[in-house]
Amino acid sequence: MKQIQCRIAGLLMALVAAGMLAACEGQEPEAQKERILPPETGQDEAVKIGFSMDTLKEERWLKDRDLFRQAAEKLGAEVEIAAANGDDALQIAQAEAMIQGGIDVLVIVPHNAEATAAIVHKAHEAGIKVIAYDRLVKNADVDLYVSFDNEQVGELQARAILEAVPKGNYVYIGGAPTDNNVHLIKKGVLNVLQPAIDRGDINIVYDEWTDDWAPENAQHNMAEALRANGNQIDAVIAANDATAGGAIKALAAQGMNGKIPVAGQDAELAAAQRIVAGTQTMTVYKPIQNLTAQVAELAVQLAKGEEIMTSVSVNNGKTEVPSILLAPTAVDAGNLADTVIADGFHSKEEVYQEAKND
Ligand code: BGC
Question: For a pocket test of ligand 1, which of 180, 184, 240 has the largest count of ligand atoms closer than 8 A to its C-beta?
Fold first, then answer.
């Protein structure tokens, strides 16, 4: 990550397009050339936002969808939403349809960080700006990236588990390798674990990605980790709560659920219930309502050609993308009430109802 003062403005874009100005500190003039003027939107005409989603499989994405629509409508914008069920070709086709249908700005949750670059090019050809939502699009001139600090997500997970298990055999259940967040999360985990690995205190005995983030793949991988190590596993870090749930099922099959610490991410209801039940140690809470509120506002501003300032940029392989990274919070049994429940992310009744032991 690189600190920059970066301005995106209609005026600026006009100057850049005219080849008069290489404006954004820390960016290559080359990358700037492809930036284009945002469409003219009449003052009283509602801004149309396209929200292209990878999936609605995990619980969080339903919140993202509903809260984003609410936040945008509160600002007087219209939202068109499509979810691609993890299908790259479908996500590209859906985004193309939105572009042709006359959206003013595109917000995208990429299924595949690389494949969705094609969507950014298509949107730009039509003069439409693109915000990468939660996940970065790689190798494309993305206009803005808004997410949680994913490296910090991994650090929070590893810190919590290292405190519980300072020495022993760890299993790492990663996410889908096509998702850029997955690599950032793992980097964060290793930032914290590496010194203990180097001392020989921690041994990562199994480390595998989870294709398409599918819980059944995570369960399969965890079963394999247990088998290969004769069940001699002391801790598990899983990239999200869905994969943690899969891993915990594999532990349960060996009578080991609740016996060793497991970390996840998302503060899904099932994970909060597992934390109460003692089968999952922690999760990472990312208040979706903060993300949707920010992105809705920024999308409207971009559509209107207004200026956006960020103090951070993230390199996506092609350019330094102006970025906003929100703070995640580690949640365990000790602070569930003060975080997830206090925010109304889940109700107390839901969390403490019948705790799941899966
Ligand atoms: C998100 C996680 C989510 C995962 C699977 C990641 O990119 O940041 O919150 O659990 O995708 O959908």
Answer: 240
- Grouped pLDDT means (10 residues each) for the chain, 358 residues: 45 34 34 40 78 96 98 98 97 98 98 98 98 98 98 99 98 98 98 98 98 98 98 98 98 98 98 98 98 98 94 97 98 98 97 66
- Nearest CA, atom 4, ligand 1: 240
- The secondary structure element, H or E, covering residue 202 is strand 202-208
CB of 240 closer than 6 angstroms to any ligand 1 atom: yes
With residue 217 as reference, give the H or E element that holds it. Answer: helix 215-228
Measured distance CA(92)–CA(60) in Å, rounded: 22
Tally of CB atoms within 10 A around 353: 12
Amino acid at 146: V
Output the pLDDT for position 246: 98
* Phi, psi of 118, rounded to the nearest 5 degrees: -60, -35
Q: Which single residue is written with the structure tokens 């509602």?
A: 46
Our measurement of the distance from residue 336's CA atom to the centroid of its chain's CA atoms, rounded to an integer in Å, reads 21
